[in-house]
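Treating backbone geometry as a discrete language has practical consequences that deserve illustration. No coordinates are needed to read the tokens, only the vocabulary itself. For completeness, the protein is quoted in full, as a sequence line and a line of structure tokens:
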Amino acid sequence: MNSIELGKHLRMLRKEKGLTLVELSSISGVSNPYISQIENGKFKPTPDILKKLSNGLDIPYFELMEAAGYWENEEDYSLLKNELTILKERQDFLFKTWKEFEEENLDMSIENSTERMKSFFEAVAKDEKIKLVKNEQRKIEDQIQTIEWQLEQVQFNKYKIQNKVEEEKDIAKSLTNLKRKLTIYDDLNFDGEPISKESTDTLLELIEFTFKQIQIINKYTQSKLKED
């Protein structure tokens, strides 16, 4: 999407959520005039702004990023990989913090496992720090899942681009597309000038002749290679 289409898309999402500009501004932390300019297609928002807006609109971050045209090149891929590495390091740290808390508070002297876990989660409920750790763990898990999906999308886009390049290298496909256009449309131009019916018929004949000649030459070349 370009900036104007993205702006319309954001406005539609905001209205679907039943939010005014002021309300979205308050929830997301993005100023009211700034959101208004984005919705009017004045400029393309940065990933940081899109992150805030996705939180305010309560929609997945990757949806806005994809709509804005991000996640399509090697630079985006590197940024995503770096972000994923940082998140996983943070995840490891939180997991270590949780395990340390578990070792300190899981009383193995209690014989009944149900009572033991009940006692442990009572300790979790009382400890404000570990509650924050638990909440952050959930958020990071969601972020990691989202980024892994985004990385798959980048790879998929890269694959599509590579396939497109390969198709463009295939003369047969290019000629077939040209033949299809010449057959379907009667108002084609060549370098800004209309193509006459006579020119169209001549081009179609030349395409057919080209196909036949290439096939003949290829068969001859292959047979010669076998003989050699």
